[in-house]
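INFO  loader      accepted 1 record
INFO  loader      residues=319
INFO  predictor   begin
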Amino acid sequence: MKAPNPYTQRKLAEARDLPPRNGPFSAFNIGFHATYTRLVEQVLDQLGKGVPVVVLIGDDATLLCDGGEQREQVIPAHYHELKALAHLAFGVQLTLMANGSGHLTELTSSELHEKRAQIREAQAAANGSTSCASSSIRMKAPAELLCRARALVDRALAEGVVDFDRLQEHVRALASNAFDTAQLAVCIELEHLHALLGRWRNDLGEKRWAGLYVVICGAHQPRYREATCQYFGRLLHQPEGSAAEREDRMVYGEGLCDVEAALDLLARHMVDQRASNLLFGDRRRLQKDLLADAASAEVRKLFPKVRSCPSGPQRRHAQ
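INFO  predictor   done
INFO  writer      dumping tokens
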């Protein structure tokens, strides 16, 4: 068997300190977590051996299979450059927001002068680089963003005041350029990822690919329709839904930063699905709070006159 997963062992140790801490109820809890951990460890022993797993952390993707590990960079430097340009656009707007309506403060003026110098430097670098025709087309949106950002900064500095009514058209146009640039960045990201996954799929073969699991690790919970979640959702034919509701062969790890943590999360997900299928005949039932239905009934009883608001896609379509 593999060496014990440190995250699995740590969670078991932490569970021993959960209330109640004495008497038979404590023994019930400790026994539950010990048995649950044993099942997790059984699954962990299969992951990366007979069960192939892809883990995405930061710029890298790692394939675990047959006891080996392949790691490749899937997000190139150009992606981060484009993302930085989008940050520049929003940064100009945030500087104006921090100033508020009225005359520019000394701090705002200093920040805008600094941003103007940065924009000029980026424009000079872009104009000085030689590229093919297809690359030039792809750089159209970033070039327009730089021009728009520079025009907005120049106007604010020339007028010496922030008047959001007068600047709104320029601010909205800059936001549009930022979205175009971000769209270019995500296309680059997903094209690189798709090429890599295509190679790995050929290496694994269709039979083993059908048993592949994916863990996407991020610094915070995934935003609605997050890019890599959309990609793997389509690739793995994941069900529609939000958060844990949609997770089957793909899971999202919030705040995870290494492969061992990702595998611990995946193993727990797989144990939960197997237990849920045995207990309820529905492997995804435990991906919803076990107390959700009882809680809904109790909340309605406590707030009988409050109408619930639409959620998810219904709410977004209503807005």
